Amino acid sequence: LEEILSQINLTEQRDMLPRFLSHGQRQWLEMGMILAQNPDIITLDEPAAGMTDDETFKTGEMIKSVMKDKTVIVVEHDMDFIKQIAKT
Fold it and tell me: What are the beta bridge partners of residue 41?
């Protein structure tokens, strides 16, 4: 769990209840719960919706690094975000 908390940038918030996390942090928590299940395929529906620009960028970097060995399918209307995470 410590490794996943580190990967999703929530180590310092490990003792907080989810309702006290920001919207972006709750999205990251959901990604951590997905990672804990170790799936082969991950689907994300608008993972950056409602996030600040900084949170959106951090989410993209998290997806690229933490989920690099997984098949990830993302539904998102923010094309800059898609360009950030897309593999060419």
Answer: 71
- Provide the token pair at 64: 């690229």
Q: Name the nearest CA neighbour of 27 among 50, 43, 7.
A: 50
Provide the 3-class DSSP secondary structure of residue 15.
coil
Residue with tokens 């920001």: 22
Q: Could you tell me the two tokens for 6? A: 């580190």
Answer whether 23's CB lies under 8 Å from 48's CB: no
Q: Which secondary structure element, helix H or strand E, spans residue 26, and what is its range? A: helix 23-36
Query: How does pLDDT run across 26-54, given as a tens digit for each residue?
Result: 999 999 999 999 999 999 999 999 999 99
Predicted confidence (pLDDT) per residue in 56-81, tens digit: 999 999 999 888 888 999 999 999 99
pTM higher than the cut 0.90: no
